[in-house]
TrEMBL record:
Superkingdom of source: Eukaryota
Name of the protein in its database record: Uncharacterized protein
Length: 97
């Protein structure tokens, strides 16, 4: 039985859809996750990474979504999103260009 590796990108569309994000935000999140997966070795659950990236995207876009909104949509605890966000913030320039 061949089990594939689960990546943060596997969760993006579903999580973004639950938050009601537009195509632009989904595209930005997808690009950030792609860059992260290619350039960083982040030792976190893929769901946590996806939630943190989405939180970063909504903050940058001024989409009016709180960490609680992201938590409810993703099922990832607010504290986990905040911690992952804190770990990813130093890499924001690389993630979002």
């Amino acid at each position: 039985m061949d089990i594939g590796v689960v990546r943060a990108s596997d969760y993006l569309r579903r999580f973004c859809s639950r938050l009601g994000l537009g195509n632009h935000e989904v595209r930005d999140a997808g690009e950030a996750v792609r860059r992260l997966e290619e350039g960083l070795d982040v030792r976190r659950n893929p769901e946590s990474i996806a939630a943190a990236i989405i939180y970063m995207v909504v903050q940058r876009a001024g989409a009016g979504k709180s960490v609680k909104d992201v938590s409810v949509a993703t099922g990832v605890a607010e504290g986990t999103i905040k911690e992952a966000h804190k770990n990813l913030t130093p890499h924001a320039q690389m993630l979002f260009g």
